[in-house]
Design a protein that fits this description.
single chain, 334 residues, alpha/beta, Rossmann fold, UDP-galactose 4-epimerase, domain 1, 2 domains, 7-stranded parallel sheet, two-stranded parallel sheet, 11 helices, 42% helix, binds NADP nicotinamide-adenine-dinucleotide phosphate, binds ligand G4F
Length: 334
């Protein structure tokens, strides 16, 4: 059988890096869209530099989701079997400061991909990175595929557009286009501005005497947190089905930011109350108070279910940041 080709937007992000590893293990040729910057910055995929056999099957292309001509040209040239659209301005807080850019990348960017597929490569299977943020101010708990959307940020509004345009291209043009409605998933590769990583990095820095205080916002918000490495397996599974469809991917548990904080600091041997201060700058104009997903359809149809527990995720992230900060501290001593 010919080697399959996968195209990934957002390859330098948390999920993009795990998905790349998974697809290379499955013998895909992987093409990744990397944003043009003044300095090459792709530390999450640096790993591949050490694996020459994988490196020969990884191809980076420079461009942007907001550039429809670039997306058309890329799809026309590559004719990918699968396209995973993971690229987006993904910070909810930042989406209030940059609503247009957020909607251009997360919303219109999705349409650019679908149009390019419709015109140049209609057999390409398309994965859209939809989000639990679309449920926003939730109208039922747990949230499942049929739960109405009620978005609370420009980011969530853009993702609602991305979701519906994906569904529309599936119905109107018979494109194999599926939405993964993923609840929060984190890992040692999570961006440093998201709350879990901000907490685990702070715990490691405080432990090494490199930080005194941790400034946070709403500690009462509740999220359904899973392990990113497992969530990218669900993305792949979605595109291996006979028919395109939409799936919630979640753990089915919800925990507050304070619970994550207590667990991480106590695992690091610290009393969080001595270090944490509340800073109003970390609050959002509108908040999603609580989400909790029902992934029973994914379990039934895809055979996917989460394995890593909340406590295990906390430990994985704290251990990784302890190692990272220890190495940084050693380097400084040299
Ligand atoms: P992430 O770490 O923030 O990665 C986002 C990626 O998108 C980065 O590679 C970024 O490039 C790229 N990007 C941003 N704007 C772009 C543009 N205009 N054109 C091309 N690429 C662009 O996000 P993640 O956690 O891996 O999440 C992956 C996707 O799933 C995102 O769409 C996110 O909104 C969605 N999602 C995430 C979660 C979660 O809990 N992690 C849950 C549901 C949905 P740079 O490296 O250059 O910044
Ligand atoms: O870690 P967060 O920034 O993630 P959030 O807002 O849930 O969004 C992430 O997950 C979504 C999936 O549901 C993705 F679609 C999205 O792209 C992103 O990956 O914030 C989690 C909670 C919020 O309620 C926030 O108000 O933590 C609260 N929080 C409290 N203090 C904080 C802070 N969040 C951040 N980022 N920084 C704080 O200091």
């Amino acid at each position: 059988m010919a080697t399959k080709k996968a195209l990934i937007s957002g390859i330098t992000g948390q999920d993009g890096s795990y998905l790349t590893e998974l697809l290379l293990e499955k013998n895909y040729d992987v093409f990744g869209i990397v944003r043009v910057k003044s300095k090459f910055d792709a530390e999450r995929i640096e790993y591949f530099k050490k694996t020459p056999s994988a490196l020969s099957r990884l191809h980076l292309i420079y461009g942007d989701l907001t550039d429809s001509e670039f997306i058309k040209k890329t799809i026309k040239e590559i004719q990918p079997d699968e396209f995973y659209n993971l690229g987006a301005q993904s910070s909810i807080k930042e989406s209030f400061n940059s609503p247009e850019y957020t909607c251009d990348s997360a919303g219109m960017g999705t349409l650019h991909c679908l149009e390019a597929i419709r015109i140049h490569s209609p057999r390409t299977r398309f994965y859209q990175a939809s989000s639990s943020e679309m449920f926003g101010k939730v109208t039922e708990t747990p949230q499942k595929e049929t739960t109405p959307f009620n978005p609370r940020s420009p980011y969530a509004c853009a993702k609602v557009f991305g979701y519906w345009i994906t569904k529309n291209y599936r119905e109107a043009f018979h494109i194999f286009a599926s939405n993964g409605i993923l609840f929060n998933h984190d890992s040692p590769r999570r961006g440093e501005n998201f709350v879990t990583r901000k907490i685990t990095l702070a715990a490691a820095r405080i432990k090494h005497g490199l930080q005194d205080k941790l400034y946070l916002g709403n500690l009462d918000a509740k999220r359904d947190w899973g392990y990113a490495k497992e969530y990218v397996e669900a993305m792949w599974m979605l595109l291996q089905q006979k028919e395109p469809d939409d799936f919630v991917i979640a753990t089915g548990e919800t925990h507050s930011v304070q619970e994550f904080l207590e667990s991480a600091f106590s695992y690091a041997g610290l009393d969080w109350k001595k270090y944490v201060e509340i800073d109003s700058n970390n609050f959002r104009p509108t908040e999603v108070d609580m989400v909790m997903g029902d992934a029973s359809k994914a379990k039934r149809v895809l055979g996917w279910e989460p394995k890593t527990t909340f406590k295990e995720l906390v430990k994985i992230m704290v251990d990784a940041d302890m190692r990272l900060i220890e190495a940084e501290a050693q380097d400084k001593k040299k």
